[in-house]
Automatic annotation (TrEMBL), chain A:
Protein name: 4Fe-4S dicluster domain-containing protein
One annotated GO molecular function: metal ion binding
Organism (species): Candidatus Desulfolinea nitratireducens
Superkingdom per UniProt: Bacteria
CDD domains: PsrB
TrEMBL record, chain B:
Keywords, in A-Z order: Cell membrane, Membrane, Transmembrane, Transmembrane helix
Keyword flag Membrane: yes
Family listed: Belongs to the NrfD family.
Gene name in the database record: nrfD
Pfam family, one: NrfD
PANTHER family attached to this UniProt entry: POLYSULPHIDE REDUCTASE NRFD, PTHR43044
Superkingdom, natural source: Bacteria
Transmembrane regions listed in the UniProt entry: 23-45, 57-85, 97-115, 135-158, 204-223, 235-259, 280-299, 319-339, 346-369, 389-410
Cell compartments where the protein resides: Cell membrane
UniProt protein name: Polysulfide reductase NrfD
Gene Ontology CC terms, in alphabetical order: plasma membrane
Membrane-topology descriptor: Multi-pass membrane protein
Entry keyword Zinc-finger: no
Amino acid sequence: MLRWGMVIDLDKCFACQSCTAACRMENNTPVAGKDQADMGRAILWNEVLPFVEGEYPNVHTTILPRPCMHCDEPSCVKVCPVQATFMNEEGTVLVNYDRCIGCRMCTVACPYAVRYFNWYAPEWPDALKEHLNPDPEVAPRPKGVVEKCTFCVQRLRKAREEAEAEGRTFNATDYTPACVETCTGRARYFGDLNDPNSLVSKLSHSPRAFRMFEELGTHPKVYYLKQG
Amino acid sequence: MEPKNQHTQTILAPIRKVSKGDYLLWGALTALLLSGLVAWIWQYIEGLGITGMNRPVYWGVYITNFVFFIGLAHSGTFISAILRIAGQSWRAPLTRAAEAITLFSLPFGAGSIIIDMGRPERLLNLVFYGRYQSPILWDVTAVSLYLLSSVVFFYLSLLPDIAMCRDRLTNVPHWQHRMYEILALGWNHDSEQYHRLEKVLDGMAVFMTMLVVTVHTVVSWLFGMTVQPGWHTALIGPFFLLGAILSGTAAVVIVLALLRKAYRLEKVLHNGLFNSLRKLLITFVLGWLYMMIAEYLTIGYSNMTEEMVVLTDKFSGTYATMFWSMTVFVFVIPLLIFIFKGKNSVGWMVFASVLINIGMWMERYIVIIPTEISPRMLHVMGQGSYLPALPEILITIACFAGLILLYAVFTRFFPIIPIWETAEELPGHAHSTKTSPAPSSASSD
Ligand code: SF4
Ligand code: SF4
């Protein structure tokens, strides 16, 4: 069984935000506008956050790209009253937008704050509207539901369809989320964590590897490689 | 034969006339209720964006109201069920007044959850796809069960009095009399009927007591089951429950004082009742203090990083003013009043009770918001902020107005003091509120 996971090398990330932009174009997240963004309502499935430790003059800044952690024991799935948020057979945590009742229990339960709520109906400036990703799986979400990073599941579907059309068996390396494909510093790796020979699985066992808030028992499938 | 009660006339008096003042009050409350409804429709059309909520403060005053109203509802069940089991017969005159608070605040508690939903039209998904792993479903189950059994409990204990309205109030409008006839279900004050009624009420009291503990604990688990700092504590259940009973009992004091003033019920709702409630309130206020100390000392002493962020925010940060005024409102002033001024003084009792309820609303708010403001990702996301916006304020006011409206209308159509439970003599068996050792005497024969 496949188990998709990601490794992010913090040594290689230089905070260019390409992943954030690629994610927006791939997944049709709406444009919030300055006022809404100031209120903390921008929807960014992927963010690159500065993690500042210490005080001047002894400051140490880590840059932290942050997708959904796709936890193996997700806090969000547990609390959803209608199973609108669920984990598929390959370990990816998804949201069923047609079923979500907008109670936001999952958003308060996720310790990584990666879930976003549609406060209004989504909007885009006209110029951007023409370039929305036409894939029906990323059709704009209606107001009142929760959304978040999906590891670009639509790309997985496409990769499988392509393999089938070409008459070959699907290989785990055929599938890459938009952020991984774009990453300028090649800091992101993606693949099957259950395959002991895959790059991600090897990197996840590196002595530099760590996961965020490991003590919470959520078992994220996104690993970071320590800076330094 | 009707139950003999020397106060029957006094108790039924408010039902005979609906005054101009009543219409004015009802009109004003309806207007407030409607403005809340308009705000909700506006919110439904536009989206929850018109509220002050944001990321990371995904829950705001709607959830605060939910917790508060469910807490207020505990008044009735406490007085009529728990004190019934404990054999506290002094409670008889105020049972219905307290139960009515339960009955009329529950809809606004449950309603607050629906108002808070991004997609209220999908409410039935909870039935079609409901998953018991989620605390929300525990809440939905517990609260609907509570609402249902409160209605039954309330209605059953109202039966004999409706029958009395039917027999005595012959000059009320025709529809009103018809209503009594239908609702009385042919009750004819048979002694056998009274025996059965007491038996059923005793049985239900046990069930309601278990339910009341469950309901508010489950409400708190909405927060306690997450791993968020400030919420994830085993004490949150008992703490919520105690707070609920405290604010509920304080609400009873307010309601009783208003009723006896408005409907001249001083003889029935005598000072002794307030003195008994005063003792209860002293106990609860002290219990609340105990919980506060147990909770915050444990967190503060162990000094865990994330927990301390939330704690400091309450003690000396963004929410310090609110936190300390809450402590003064719920604990300091009321306790001083109860001990030094409250005896035989309804005015002081009401003042303290109002403070307690304002304080308890703040307490709910302070449990919910500071944890959200400082999520675990705080150091990377920065601190959040939250201020309720106009629609949230309108809807909150509307909830309170609705509760008062239901209450005011009810008291003009039904006796708010249970005539049969306060009667000197009941058909079939001598039953005196003054001498009866335990109200459960009926079930022992
Ligand atoms: S990071 Fe949050 S949203 Fe993603 S799987 Fe884990 S708990 Fe769920
Ligand atoms: S907001 Fe939607 S996905 Fe999240 S818990 Fe509620 S119903 Fe489930």
